[in-house]
Specification:
elongated, 336 residues, 0% strand, mainly alpha, phosphate transport, transmembrane, phosphate transmembrane transporter activity
Length: 336
């Protein structure tokens, strides 16, 4: 199957998979920050478990997210390899830049923003599929709020049910349960984020006539996307992990279990519905929800504001970046 593709298209697929690697690199914190900060697992063991669950997600979860990202942002009739490449370049640059500073961002935002910007540069605002974009951005905004609510309610109920037990006994039990909850969350992470990249590769394959718009996504696309994000997770963005797991609020095993369970439930639900959400937003909202369940002052709201500011900047920056990169490609006659 792959041999039928041109060298240029294969190179763009490799770049898309590198984006997926950066996604896992930044978003490793989403999967492991809680279990590392509670000291249930060492960082190396934690990212190894998260990487495994990110990879095997393709065996369990549906492909609805990939289909929406691949066909629900820009009119597929104007999608070209050049457009996809421009969007990926903008996304990768912002993702690596923010990861270097230890700032957890939504790689979903970077990808969608870059794709929107390149689409506008190629065909104007009329090529944008407003319904798909509104749905995606709406849930990117709602994700931290819902994650906060899910985990806050879950944590309050859990705290009340275990308050009569000794802290040492609670830590021992929930330290073991965290192995289950972090696996659950990582499964949802892989099903959401890896499939976004699969959606972009699908759009590329459709644009070059390799596959019909209504055809099923090839198995090698799904497998390679999951493998790339798993590898990125295995490398781990340690600065981001410290930011998410130690600077937002202090976590105990019962807190980590609550955040991972509430956030994982939201990720799995949206994966089955087919709505791509930001796993960064989900886990950050979940961690804050658990912290607020103890007391509002246990959340470092100043640092939380810095994270939200980075989130707000991401779509405008990558949209501008995708637009500029596409225009530069045209100016330099780099058309593929």
């Amino acid at each position: 199957m792959v041999e039928a593709l041109s060298i240029t298209v294969i190179l763009i697929i490799i770049i898309a998979l590198f984006y997926d690697f950066v996604n896992g690199w930044n978003d490793a914190a989403n999967s492991v920050a809680t279990i590392v900060s509670t000291r249930v697992l060492t960082p190396i063991k934690a990212v190894g478990l998260a990487a495994l669950m990110n990879f095997i997600a393709f065996l369990i979860m549906p492909q609805a997210v990939a289909k929406l990202v691949g066909k629900g942002i820009v009119d597929v009739s104007i999608v070209t390899p050049t457009l996809i490449l421009a969007g990926l370049v903008a996304s990768i640059f912002w993702g690596m830049f923010m990861t270097n500073f230890g700032m957890p961002i939504s790689m979903s935002h970077t990808l969608i923003g870059g794709f929107i910007g390149a689409g506008i540069a190629a065909g104007g605002f009329k090529v944008l599929i407003s319904g798909g974009i509104i749905l995606i951005i709406g849930f990117l905004v709602l994700a931290p709020i819902i994650g906060f609510i899910f985990s806050n309610i879950f944590a309050i109920g859990l705290f009340r049910s275990v308050r009569r037990y000794r802290p040492s006994a609670i830590n021992k039990v929930f330290g073991k349960l965290q192995l289950v909850s972090v696996s659950w969350y990582s499964l949802g992470h892989g099903s959401n984020d890896a499939l976004k990249t699969a959606g972009i590769i699908t759009a590329l394959l459709i644009s070059v006539g390799y596959m019909d718009p209504d055809a099923a996504i090839p198995a090698w696309v799904i497998l390679s996307a999951h493998a790339s994000i798993a590898l990125g997770t295995l490398i781990g963005g340690w600065k981001v992990i410290r930011s998410m797991g130690m600077r937002l609020t202090k976590l105990r095993p019962v807190d980590g279990f609550s955040a991972e369970s509430g956030g994982g439930l939201l990720l799995v639900l949206t994966a089955f519905i087919g709505i791509p959400v930001s796993t960064t937003h989900v886990i950050a909202g979940s961690i804050m929800g658990v912290g607020a369940a103890k007391r509002m002052t246990s959340v470092r709201w100043g640092f939380a504001r810095n994270i939200v500011a980075a989130w707000i900047l991401t779509i405008p920056v990558t949209t501008f970046g995708g637009f500029v990169v596409y225009k530069i490609f045209n100016l330099l006659n780099i058309v593929v």
